[in-house]
Design a protein that fits this description.
The protein has 378 residues and is of the alpha+beta class. 32% of the residues lie in helices and 14% in strands. It has eleven helices and ten strands. The strands form two sheets. Strands 1-3-2-10-9-8-7-6 form an eight-stranded antiparallel sheet, with helices on both faces. Strands 4-5 form a two-stranded antiparallel sheet. A hairpin with a 2-residue loop joins strand 2 and strand 3.
């Protein structure tokens, strides 16, 4: 079946590629075309010379992968499918996935006290004797730890210094609730988690991510540090807000390192590469068994909210017609969103090199998956 004219015109105009198969339907194409046009219109209306990259999948097939706008505000270099962005807290999903791989390999148990591998955790302010922090607690944001450490230098420093920053941050980190009591998003908790996994596996965290996830999935444009030969493909980060002057300096400085924020927010990638990780989470790889994927995507938080919870490295949402799994990400100068629906097998990745704009990633992505999901239920 040929692609719908509307979809073809939109995607060709903005250098997107469409893969059509016998199962592709005109209504599916029309929904996708409308989504692409909306994102493009948002970028145009934001009018700051930025770039957006998107990828839409179904199962193990990429339906749309492309980019539009300019990846450099000064040179006006156009963005394309190889343009690299920071993914922010979507990094936590990689850390959660890495945890599950080591659980599957028998290296650790999810309910092991983290102090078995990282005894420095006992230096937390008010560390409890009765209820120990476990890997599950850290991975599901139920450790009770504050969102950030009180250590003033925690957020800055070279990439190679991140473990030292974590250790120095621990004595300056306190609790806001008892371990396992309730959900409380914690960046420092995920930094501790990454270091604890590394200690248990007896290998550096970044090396583990590369060996256990990036290489097997052939994610060749995903990094913790941009190689010299790839610097021209990096989208220039633009911080600041709609009423403030654009900030190019902080995003640029953070390419050298983000302090302890390695397991919780330091990965760079492309929308196409993130699609490969999404497909792995849908079961299209041999890295995790279906049982362990289900465990990772199962609610781990004791909450009354029912519709909105957290698993192992993933935000979970469900209602009468939608059950999504994903994560948002934001660092100075970059925003990203990663969302898929297991039942319909649709998923979407959105990446941008600025922090504010007309595109509400959450609303746009959920609306797209909801509309596509209704097709599957006809």
């Amino acid at each position: 079946m040929k692609a719908a004219p509307l979809l073809l015109s939109v995607l060709l105009l903005f250098s997107c590629q469409v893969k059509s198969g016998s199962s592709t339907r005109m209504d599916e194409e029309a929904i996708i075309a409308q989504f692409v046009m909306q994102i493009q219109n948002d970028l145009h209306d934001d009018n700051i010379g930025g770039a957006v990259s998107i990828s839409i999948i179904k199962g193990n097939e990429i339906l749309v992968s492309g980019a539009f706008g300019t990846q450099d505000n000064l040179t006006k270099a156009p963005a394309d499918t190889n343009t690299i962005f920071r993914i922010g807290s979507i990094t936590k999903s990689f850390t959660g996935y890495l945890l599950m791989i080591h659980y599957q390999e028998g290296i650790l148990n999810l309910d092991d006290p983290v102090e078995l591998y990282l005894p420095e955790i006992k230096n937390l302010k008010g560390y409890p004797d009765s209820s120990k922090i476990t890997f599950r607690h850290l991975a599901s944001h139920t450790s009770g730890l504050t969102r950030e450490s009180g250590y003033r230098e925690a957020n800055f420093g070279q990439l190679a210094e991140w473990e030292e920053k974590v250790i120095k941050s621990i004595p300056e980190t306190s609790f806001r609730s008892a371990p396992g009591e309730r959900f409380g998003y914690s960046n420092i908790g995920y930094a501790i988690l990454g270091l604890a996994i590394s200690r248990a596996a007896k290998k550096p965290y970044m090396e583990l991510v590369n060996e256990k996830i990036l290489q097997p999935l052939k994610m060749k444009n995903t990094y913790f540090m941009i190689p010299e030969e790839k610097t021209n493909a990096l989208a220039q980060g633009m911080g600041g807000g709609p009423l403030a002057e654009l900030d190019f300096d902080l995003p640029h400085r953070e390419h050298e390192g983000r302090g302890y924020r390695v397991p919780n927010g330091s990965i760079y990638s492309t929308s196409a590469d993130l699609s490969k990780f999404m497909m792995a989470n849908l079961g299209y790889s041999d890295l995790l068994t279906n049982d362990n994927l289900q465990l990772m995507h199962k609610t781990q938080t004791p909450t009354d909210r029912h519709r909105s919870n957290y698993g192992v490295g993933f935000e979970l949402y469900s209602d009468l017609e939608l059950a999504t799994i994903g994560h948002a990400g934001s660092t100075p100068g970059y925003s990203a969103y990663f969302l898929f629906e297991k039942n319909t097998q649709y998923g979407v990745v959105i990446m941008r090199n600025y922090n504010w704009g007309n595109t509400n990633f959450d609303l746009r992505a959920n609306a797209l998956l909801r509309a596509l999901g209704r097709l599957s239920n006809k």
